[in-house]
Amino acid sequence: MKALVAVKRVVDYNVKVRVKADGTDVDVANVKMSMNPFDEIAVEEAVRLKEAGKVSEIVVVSLGVKQCEETLRTALAMGADRAILVETDAELQPLAVAKLLKAIADKEQPQLLIVGKQAIDDDANQTGQMVSALLGWGQGTFASKVDLSAETVDVTREVDGGLETVKLRLPAVVTTDLRLNEPRYVKLPNIMAAKKKPLDKTSPADLGVDVAPRLKTLKVAEPAKRSAGIKVANAAELVAKLKNEAKVL
Ligand code: AMP
Hints:
Bound molecules: adenosine monophosphate
Distance between the termini: 61 Å
Oligomer: single chain
Domain Electron transfer flavoprotein alpha/beta-subunit N-terminal: 23-211
Protein name: Electron transfer flavoprotein subunit beta
Strand order of the largest sheet: 11-10-9-12-8-1-6-7-13
Keywords: Electron transport, Transport
Family: Belongs to the ETF beta-subunit/FixA family.
Organism: Vogesella fluminis
């Protein structure tokens, strides 16, 4: 069984992003970039399924600038077998990403498409749902457990009231949540070995996909600054401040 996993190159989660002076976007110049954390979880899950003998090939795909190759090499070092880069300098919104992933899925015919539940840069949480609709496949979103059989996959999902388990007929789309697994630490020999694994390149034009943006960002602003906190001596002072200054009591 083949698994296709989408990995996005995003600003590293440790970086404190700054908004550009003209308020059009966040500034990503000279900022550390890494694999989207939910996509690391997606790759890890695919590798564990392969180690368990349930998946035979893992193909990872990234869409974006040339440097996404680094993200793909990390996924290959984690255990993926081959990689596809859909290279473009265009801004890719979730609908365009979903169309490109559908085009790749049509070619590759995986039984399982695993994506992150959201990319931590735009926080859209749309791609998995959109590509599932475009493909006409079932979707198990926010997965905290994946149980794969030959023809179905049981996905346990984190929902408000607890956990829900759905059974999907394959092929299917799964989106990963934080508690699904803990991605492995990549060892140096695996990084070296990943350099020799196949990485193919294609483009939106080759795949016949129009990636023109459908949404326009009007403005990007920093969150309001919080004023500094203070220490109170006792509960009475706290209650007095809540009453007289914050006026919330
Ligand atoms: P989003 O809908 O933008 O929050 O992204 C959800 C998931 O879709 C991500 O965790 C990735 O698995 C996948 N994805 C989104 N954009 C890209 C991209 N440019 N390249 C590869 N995968 C992507």
